[in-house]
Amino acid sequence: MEMRREEMGKGKSELRIAMEELCLACPGDEEQQQQRKKRSSTKDLLCVSKHLTHVLDEIGPTLLVLRKDIEQNVQRLEDLLARDPCKYETLTAIVTEEMEEGTSKKMNSCTRAILWLARSINFSRHLLERLLNTSDQVSLQEMVEEAYTATLKPWHGWISSAAYRVGKGYTTLHGAII
Prior knowledge:
Helix content is 71%, strand content 0%. The chain has one domain: Glycolipid transfer protein, GLTP, CATH 1.10.3520.10. It has 178 residues and is mainly α. The longest helix has 24 residues, at 110-133. It has helices at residues 2-9, 14-21, 30-39, 42-59, 64-83, 91-101, 110-133, 140-151, 158-173.
């Protein structure tokens, strides 16, 4: 994650880095471009995100804040997609339009929703891999902390990081899963 911050300092925007992670802006032959287009499907991102909320429900109330954030971002993209399903079929189309309009960095932009959904999926993937591959000797709290540190913390400001620590402490005190 430090490397990503360094890349941002060298002229790469946070948005550009996220687009590269989602394989939206890479050149290649026609077959590779078709694969990227398929991976950049707005409906596919929404589907994965909705399935993720169901998984988070199963984990319990510990990750409620993450679940609510995902739901809010899903709703933002669904609203846009409902306005013109053909126009907003791909994530690239959404990001390109918002960048041209100069709205991509606004708090309520769909570009930011895409960015945070990708990060939430990355966090969840990291956590679920640890859950599957770790012995009982590591607590869920430690796994969540590790996943957060590796995936979301570099992108959170001090307020979000503080809220995470407070939420973590609250769930520990009240006997939630963490």
